[in-house]
Design a protein that fits this description.
Elements (H helix, E strand, L loop, with lengths): L2 E4 L3 E6 L11 E6 L1 H11 L4 E4 L1 E3 L2 H12 L8 E3 L6 E5 L7 E5 L15 H5 L3 E5 H6 L1 H16 L3 E5 L9 H12 L4 E2 L3 H8 L4 H11 L3 E5 L4 E5 L4 E5 L12 H14 L4 H15 L12 H7 L9
Parallel strand pairs: 1-4, 1-9, 2-7, 5-6, 9-10, 10-11, 11-12
Antiparallel strand pairs: 2-3, 7-8, 12-13, 13-14
Helix pairs in contact: 1-9, 9-10
């Protein structure tokens, strides 16, 4: 595998109409999970990817495995929990605003994730281990599992990719900050947003955020700046890379995961820092064009056309 990632994926119920959920009667079913989003986006870009987790021994758990497997992602290490159920989430939509998210994940199967669920050899054989702060927030055992996975990967010289993905519905910033900063010190590539930089480091200056993470030991820092683009740096190079204009977006959820996948794809292809950022900005932008968390992620040819690297032929 080129990339392995793990964490909670839930069954997502997307309302077919806008307004408070008490007035919504019909929903479309799909899946939602930061780590599986990254895995699916990378698979569509042509990479060999694995994702694992715990899901309930129920129809929703089997649905999640089926969808992710169908996208070309290896799910052979997923565990079916006999006692806990698969998590759910609902979106609530209003015109011209990001959706509200309602989680039903407390005591879900993934909160029961433990070190015993790790396949050390599976992790050691990959090139990149991608983790997020969401899994760290789920439970004490899930946090221990992430830390152990990072330890296994570091010993095998596997690159650690880390998206802080702060979710204040899961834990307070006071609890999250020391845990996330400890993982950041072990990461090779980190994907903070401006808001996350402010919460973790006390500054919303993208250059200061990048500088502080580099000083912690990160090899590459890429600060997400939304529609403006991103600021990327390593010890030798620092640059702002402009984003792509999306006139009318459908759904912003999943854009950050698409960004991470695009950047990691560039790393795997040994592209320059600027080219990695361009690819990341493009995948993130395309993710917003389609409703759903992962439905808008492009194939390699689609992203090349979108960012102007290949010519589009419509007929």
């Amino acid at each position: 595998m080129e990339v392995i990632t793990f964490g909670e994926t839930m069954v997502l119920f997307n309302p077919d109409s806008k307004g408070p959920l008490r007035y919504v009667h019909n929903f479309s079913k799909s899946i939602g999970g930061a780590e599986s989003n990254v895995a699916i986006a990378l698979a569509r870009l042509g990479h060999n990817v694995g994702w694992f987790s715990r899901v309930g021994d129920d129809e929703f758990g089997r649905y999640i495995k089926s969808v992710i497997r169908g996208e070309g992602v290896d799910v052979s290490r997923v565990v079916e929990d006999q006692e806990k159920s698969t998590g759910l989430l609902f979106k609530e939509r209003f015109a011209h605003a990001d959706p509200n998210i309602y989680y039903y994940r407390k005591n879900s199967a993934t909160t029961n994730l433990t070190i015993d669920d790790l396949d050390a050899e599976y992790i050691k054989k990959t090139k990149i281990l991608h983790i997020t702060g969401i899994t760290l927030a789920l439970s004490k055992s899930a946090r221990e599992t992430v830390c152990k996975a990072v330890e296994i990967a570091k010993e095998a010289n596997v690159l650690i990719s880390f998206d802080p993905n702060i979710r204040l519905k899961l834990w307070s910033i006071e609890e999250a900050r020391p845990v996330l900063l400890d993982i950041a010190k072990k990461a090779d590539i980190i994907f903070p947003g401006i808001d996350e930089g402010k919460m973790l480091l006390g500054t919303d200056d993208h250059e200061k955020i990048a500088k502080q993470f580099l000083e912690m030991g990160c090899k590459i820092v890429t600060v997400k700046l939304g529609k403006e683009g991103c600021y990327v740096c390593n010890k030798n190079e620092r640059r702002f890379v402009k984003g792509y204009v999306v006139e009318k977006f459908e759904d912003t959820v999943g854009a950050g995961d698409g960004y991470a996948a695009g950047f990691l794809s560039g790393i795997l292809k040994k592209l320059s820092l600027k080219e990695c950022a361009e690819l990341a900005n493009g995948v993130g932008a395309m993710a917003t064009l389609v409703r759903g968390d992962m439905e808008g992620f492009p194939t390699h040819s689609q992203i090349m056309e979108f960012i102007g690297k290949e010519k589009y032929i419509d007929r």
